[in-house]
Amino acid sequence: MVFSGNVVARGLGFLFPIVLAHALAKDDFGTVYFFIGTGFFVGELVLAGFPTAMTRFIAAEGSRQAWLSSALAGGLPLLLVSVVLGELVAAAADAPRGLMWMVICGLTIDAYYFALLRGLRSFKLLAGYRVSANLAQLALLLAAIAAGLDSTATAVAIYSFVYLVPIAVIEVLRSPIRRTLRGAVRPDRPHLRRLARFALPALVSGCAYAALVQGDVLFVKLLAPEDLADYAAARSLAQPMLLVPYAIAIVMLPAVASAGEGRRWGMLARALRVTALIGALLTGAYFAGASLLVRLVLPADFTETADILPLLAAGLAGIGLCSVLAQWWMGIGRPGPPALALTVGAAVAIGLQYLLTPAHGGVGAAAAVAGGIGAALLTLGAATARGRLLERQGEPVASA
After folding, report:
1. Where residue 1 falls among pLDDT bands split at 50, 70, 90?
2. Where are the chain's structural domains?
């Protein structure tokens, strides 16, 4: 169910940057994608920690009102810090002022609502939420183009606040927020402390993950700005690589959290087999058909995109495996190993960005992403193998 909804949602989301590339000047397209990618990167301060922790505890323990209200209270200061930091980063990159806050606030709304539906295991609503958000996003963009309102600011605003449309519809029809907060339970210190203990390593994981798969846009903007639009287009076209692993990862955390210990390793093995097979097949397809795909869907002046796309596809195949492994560890209540692995990967990727991007542009940035993801996958894979060995020796996986 989640995979089918994810395919439709990602398909609609795949059309958004393509339409945008045809509607805006090439440099303006690159600027919009800079805000999207960097908004995710900076916004991970609020997007990754408390929403992820809330999902895990709602799925595993109930007490929904207390977990939701405490997670909202814990995330508010981080939202303020993210907004300030985002505007500073935009200024340092010589990007238009006053747009980054919209992306961060919109993504925060989406992160908390998505986390609530995921923790409640309302997968039908979750799929409908994603599909309707991306459908509304595309419809609003087409309407803006038809009305002559297509601009960088309009595209950023549509991307940022489109989530309010499906949230309003779902709340009228099903009311998951109102039902969860029924009884007006206020935030309390015990719940906030437990969330914070889980949220801190989850936050480290999220920020490191963002440095791997979103920070590259910022590095291209700073180190090879002439390649920004081509790199942004390649990032957009490579998104189908994440269809299967993201669908599995969405279900993995709450499913593992509520499953017995005997089922968890089998769930992981099946997920990894499917993710690895699909990733290998799609990577081969991108290497074989990148030039044709770019010629079919992008304007003629995106000349470097086809060179960047295969390397990005290979890197995203690796991040798909990392995502499945990370969500499994978080599902068993151990966010530490993913935090360590993704931090190692982010450090490698950042070092490679400074080494490769100034000389090789977008191709160098894609190679840096692939190298960092490879380091993260090796680290997390080693921790998982050690955990499996300890479990077979009769020790709990928590020792890994």
Report:
1. low
2. 2-399
Q: Which residue in 365, 376, 347, 361 sits closest to 311, CA to CA? A: 365
Q: At what angle do helices 49-61 and 64-92 cross, to 10 degrees?
A: 160
The model's pTM:
0.74
Which residues, including other chains, have CB under 8 Å from residue 173's CB and lie 6 or more apart? none
Name the residue with higher pLDDT: 260 or 45.
Answer: 45
Kindly state the tokens that stand for 97.
């002022």
Q: How would you label 203-218 residue by residue, b for 16+ Cβ within 10 Å and e otherwise?
A: bbbbbbbbbbbbbbbb
Residue 356: HSE in the Cβ half-sphere, 13 Å Cα cutoff: 18
Given a contact cutoff of 8 angstroms between Cβ atoms, the answer to whether 365 and 357 are in contact is yes
Contact status, residue 200 vs residue 74, Cβ threshold 8 Å: no
Provide the 10 A C-beta neighbour count for residue 381. Answer: 15
For residue 207, give both structure tokens: 């920020």
Tell me: pLDDT of 194 over 50: yes
Q: How far is CA 182 from CA 186, 187, 329, in A?
A: 11, 14, 31
d(CA 160, CA 100): 9
CB 99 within 8 A of CB 35: yes
Q: Which two tokens stand for residue 103?
A: 């992306």
Number of Cβ within a 10 Å radius of residue 231: 31
- Helix, coil or strand: residue 285: helix
Instruction: Please state the separation of Cα 387 from the chain's center in Å.
Output: 26
Residues 6+ apart with CB under 8 A from 10: 134, 239, 240, 242, 243
* C-beta pairs of 295-300 under 8 Å, 24+ apart in sequence: 297/18, 297/237, 298/18, 298/21, 298/233, 298/237, 299/21, 299/22, 299/26
Q: Which amino acid is at 143?
A: A
- 65, two tokens: 């009102």
